[in-house]
Design a protein that fits this description.
The chain is an alpha+beta fold. It has two domains: 38 residues; 81 residues, GMP Synthetase, Chain A, domain 3, CATH 3.30.300. It is built from three helices and five strands, in the order βββαββαα. Strand 2 and strand 3 form a beta hairpin. The protein starts with a strand and ends in a 12-residue tail after the last helix. The relative contact order is 0.12.
Length: 132
């Protein structure tokens, strides 16, 4: 099982997040009581999706020996409201010179990235409290 850990820093909502030796800062915007020292958790989710799609597409193209040039994936999202799900709008940008069959296949592969599959699938949570 992989681990990501969040620890509060000196600030209202700012947390230092560590994963595999990398450290990131996650915070809330100032208008939500944070210091805006980093993206908020929902923005991190969108970052996770967009980067996973781009990397998955690039890895697939590399395995196929396709030179696809620059890849960009933009994710817009609308957080869940009561009674409605979170909505993601994903835009994959590829060079127009790519053959149509490659573009179509890469769009199929984009929908199969691990984060995309996690978000559209069923998830389970095990929660526990540890007192320190």
């Amino acid at each position: 099982m992989r681990t990501a850990t969040a620890r509060r820093q000196n600030g209202s909502y700012k947390h230092r997040v560590t994963v595999r030796g990398h450290t990131l800062t996650v915070d809330e915007p100032e208008d939500e009581g944070g210091e805006d020292a980093g993206p908020d958790p929902q923005e991190m989710l969108a970052v996770s999706l967009s980067s996973c799609v781009a990397i998955t597409v690039e890895m697939y193209a590399t395995r196929k020996g396709w030179n696809i040039g620059d890849v960009e994936c933009e994710v817009e999202y609308e957080p869940a409201q009561r009674g409605s799900p979170t909505k993601f709008h994903l835009t994959l940008r590829l060079p127009k010179e790519l053959p149509e069959d490659q573009r179509d296949r890469l769009m199929q592969i984009a929908a199969k990235c691990p984060v995309h599959r996690t978000l559209e699938g069923e998830v389970m949570f095990e929660e526990e409290l540890e007192l320190t």
